[in-house]
Design goal:
It contains 11 helices and 13 strands. The chain is α/β, with parallel strands linked by helices and 278 residues long. Strands 2-1-3-12-4-13 form a 6-stranded mixed sheet, sandwiched between helices. Strands 9-6-10-5-11 form a 5-stranded mixed sheet. The longest helix has 24 residues. The chain is globular.
Length: 278
């Protein structure tokens, strides 16, 4: 059967369109790093809690700019949104968490990966009512973080100083229900980590994460009644989506964050309240 020329032409155009569409679809699977207004400059967007993470990132912006990488820092005040934003693709990485926290959520653990560790922020017990740990009275009320990893970390700190005994089977995720001995009859209140500094008017003391203690104006080495020692395993990591660990922008960030310049800055700025691990 003879096919009219016009029909053949239409088929050819449609076929070309399908080929172009397929090629376009395949090209979308391998996207180059986002480009900023500056020609040839890659953009790296990192979410971070304000202190010390965003401050540390701010120190290396110029070092990355010299490598044609524009570092954009997005500040967060909570511990949930940075991971949600990273999974959603709104961030290229985040910098605020330790591995027990990352791994406590199955969705985060499945989608995200630690790229490299930078520092430890010692956890401490703080109070507006008492000046020394010896003044902690029987029946005192203690606020601790309500997420499993940091709540367990708070209880392990109290156990290390002899205030409670925990069931060994509870491991890093102990809760008040795992307390087997409580000679001072301490009363525990579980709150969101960011709320702990503001709880000090309502409780006798609170176990506060290092970044939130710093934001609240505490000097952990001077103001904490008790504080984690150098043995703390809670290293803060830069975290990426799985598969992005070898992204050249992430490797460039690792090189400048784990440098003597940053180590000296951490030591000078926080004098042991934040401890670089490199």
């Amino acid at each position: 059967m003879k096919i009219p020329f016009a029909y053949t032409l239409v088929l050819g155009i449609l076929g070309l369109g399908l080929i172009q569409t397929a090629e376009g679809a395949s090209r979308k699977e391998v996207k180059p790093p986002p480009q900023s207004a500056a020609q040839g400059t890659s953009v790296l967007t990192v979410g971070a809690t304000i202190v010390p993470h965003a401050a540390i990132l701010g120190l290396v912006k110029d070092d990355l700019a010299a490598q044609n990488i524009e570092l954009k820092i997005v500040e967060f005040t909570d511990y949930v949104m940075p991971n949600s934003a990273l999974i959603a693709g709104d961030l290229d990485a985040n910098f605020f968490q330790h591995l027990p926290f990352l791994e406590e959520n199955p969705t985060w653990k499945a989608a995200l990966s630690p790229a490299f560790g930078v520092h430890v922020e010692p956890l401490g017990l703080y109070s507006n009512l008492i000046k020394t740990i010896e003044d902690l009275k029987d029946g005192a009320s203690i606020a601790i973080p309500n997420d499993p990893s940091n709540g367990g970390r708070a209880l392990l700190l109290l156990q290390s100083k002899g205030f409670i005994t925990l069931n060994p089977a509870a491991g890093l995720k102990a809760t008040p229900r795992d307390i087997t001995d409580n000679p001072k009859n301490l009363k525990f209140h579980e709150l969101e980590a960011a709320q702990l500094p503001r709880s000090l008017g309502d409780v006798d003391a609170a176990v506060i994460n290092g970044n939130y203690a710093l934001e609240a104006g505490f000097n952990p080495l001077e103001d904490a009644l008790i504080i984690e020692g150098a043995e703390s395993p809670y290293i803060n990591y830069l975290v990426v989506r799985k598969g992005d660990e070898e992204d050249p922008r992430i490797k460039a960030l690792e090189a400048v964050l784990c440098s003597q310049k940053v180590k000296d800055y951490i030591n000078k700025t926080w004098n042991g309240s934040v401890r670089g691990i490199f």
